[in-house]
Amino acid sequence: MSQVAVVFKIYARDGMFDEAVSDIKKKSPAGMQTEEIGFGIKVIKALFKFDDSSTSSSKIEEELKSMKSISEVEVYEESLI
Fold first, then answer.
1. Cα–Cα distance between 79 and 42 in angstroms, integer?
2. CA 62 to chain CA centroid, nearest Å
3. How far is it, in rounded angstroms, from Cα 77 to Cα 9?
4. Distance between CA atoms of residues 10 and 65, nearest Å
5. Is the dihedral of CA 63, 65, 68, 69 positive or negative?
6. What is the pLDDT of residues 47-57, one digit of tens each?
7. Tens of pLDDT, residues 14-44
8. Where are the domains of the chain?
9. Is the CB of residue 47 less than 8 Å from the CB of residue 30?
10. Domain 3-80 class?
């Protein structure tokens, strides 16, 4: 069994940035930071660590995408640890 670390780049829906941050925290990420990418647009980078036999990055990605406060999710980095 290997441990996997995935950083997701997450975009909030218009006017729902704080709610998106709160929703993501409920999923217990190993780390999270926000970054301004330009023109007032902020992105959330959330790190999730998990055992590859118990879940997958695509399952976590789908869970994040299903949140009403989130508009887009992409895998930023993924590696074995």
1. 25
2. 10
3. 9
4. 9
5. positive
6. 999 998 888 89
7. 999 999 999 999 999 999 999 999 898 999 9
8. 3-80
9. yes
10. alpha beta
Q: Are 12 and 70 in contact (CB under 8 A)?
A: yes
The whole-angstrom separation of Cα 27 and Cα 48 is 9
- Within 10 angstroms of residue 27's Cβ, the number of other Cβ atoms is 13
Structure tokens at 9: 């780049």
Q: CA separation (Å) from 3 to 7, 37, 54, 56, 60?
A: 14, 30, 10, 11, 15
Tokens 């975009």 identify what position? 11
Q: What's the whole-model pTM score?
A: 0.92
Compute the distance between CA of residue 12 and CA of residue 73 in angstroms, rounded to an integer: 9
Is there a contact between 46 and 30 (Cβ–Cβ < 8 Å)?
A: no
